[in-house]
Amino acid sequence: MSMYEACIFPLQKMLTNLERWLDKAVAFAEQKKIDPNTLLSARLAPDQFPLVRQIQASCDQAKFTAARLTGKEPPKHPDTEQTIEELRIRLRAVHEYLGTFTREDFEGAAMRAISLVYFEGRFIYGKDYLNELQLPNFYFHVTTAYSILRHNGVDLGKQDFLGSITTHPKG
Amino acid sequence: MSMYEACIFPLQKMLTNLERWLDKAVAFAEQKKIDPNTLLSARLAPDQFPLVRQIQASCDQAKFTAARLTGKEPPKHPDTEQTIEELRIRLRAVHEYLGTFTREDFEGAAMRAISLVYFEGRFIYGKDYLNELQLPNFYFHVTTAYSILRHNGVDLGKQDFLGSITTHPKG
Predict the structure, then answer these.
(1) HEC readout, B84-95
(2) Are B62 and B11 in contact (CB under 8 A)?
């Protein structure tokens, strides 16, 4: 399995799924006659990030994963979004950024030595960066965003979480 | 990157982390003078699985991932756990089961055609099964277990979620 396949496609798909959950959040808010942006300040614990920050973090984990594995400098996003519409723009920007990477960009990515400020004097191999740090972190924020919406009553299920799955006809 | 590396080690580590969260849940319950097993029925939404089922599902996703990618029959677990101690036994059994797999078991796993009852007449390649279905599903249940504990006041942070990270000294 290539690092490109383990990284780009799953991250892109989950960002797409996340935007679909926001569609359902807006529908829910319309039905309840509330401002949908109210949901962005909801959180599951007082010392955990609210929904807006979970989505921003999902975007950041996605862009840093692709950038660091390929030695590129990711675009900056200053976390100023305050509405669902602004978050949609951020989600699409990162989805598009992920789409600029090629399989060739990921050559050697598994054994690339990556330095991070919080691993002073140490490095992490690209494959460990992906498997131990970035995928868990990315799914953490995406799942927490989903759970905040579920907890607030938005009509979401496992199919919404997973999105479309690549299958092939038998025989 | 090998399928073995993308599968076995991250799954084992997260199951280990999950058991550490249960240690913190027990410490929290002692401090609050409540039965720690009370937490097992907590959930984030009335139509979502409670904690006990999130942990059982994490175990199932982990064992099925390794088994289906390698064409083996996984051990059966009838979901009868009712206490944290019983869940620890399940978590360790699955951790141990994952430890029985070798790199050789995963040869050809990326392009293995996997049939699932809910993909009638279709199959999924091993790499897509891992990236699109199993890792998202596994992290979904693990993160939701974590969020249920956080939501109930258990003292957990991102470091508890990620656990130890494999880094190497520079130079």
Answers:
(1) HHHHHHHHHHHH
(2) yes
Domain A3-160, CATH homologous superfamily name and number: dinb family like domain (1.20.120.450)
Question: Which CATH architecture group holds B3-155?
Answer: Up-down Bundle (1.20)
Structure tokens given for B143: 């993160």
CA gap B71, B66 in Å, rounded: 9
Task: Give ipTM to 2 decimals.
Answer: 0.96
On whether any CB of chain B is under 8 Å from the CB of A124, the answer is: yes
What separation in angstroms does the CA of A167 have from each of A8, A24, B133?
Answer: 18, 26, 11
B135 and A130 in contact by Cβ < 8 A? no
Taking the Cβ of residue A92 and every Cβ of chain B, the question of whether any pair is shorter than 8 Å is answered with no
pTM over 0.90: yes
pLDDT, tens digit, 9 for 90 and up, residues A59-106: 999 999 999 999 999 999 999 999 999 999 999 999 999 999 999 999
Instruction: Extract the runs of DSSP E, i.e. beta strands, from A14-114.
Output: 113-114
Helix (H, G, I), strand (E, B) or coil at A149: helix
Cβ of B6 under 8 Å from any chain A Cβ? Answer: yes
Contact A40, A50 (CB under 8 A): yes
Q: Where are the domains positioned within chain B?
A: 3-155
Structure tokens given for A111: 């054994």
Q: How far apart are CA A84 and CA A71, in angstroms?
A: 31
CA A108-B135-B89 angle, to 5 degrees, is 120
Residue A136 with chain B: CB contacts under 8 Å: 10, 14, 139, 161-162
Contact residues for A38 (Cβ-Cβ < 8 A; gap 6+):
A29
Q: What is the mean pLDDT of residues A28-38?
A: 97
Per the listing, tokens 């979904």 go with B140
Give the span between the Cα atoms of B90 and A38, in whole angstroms. Answer: 40
Cα–Cα distance measured from residue A168 to residue B115, given in angstroms and rounded to the nearest whole number = 10
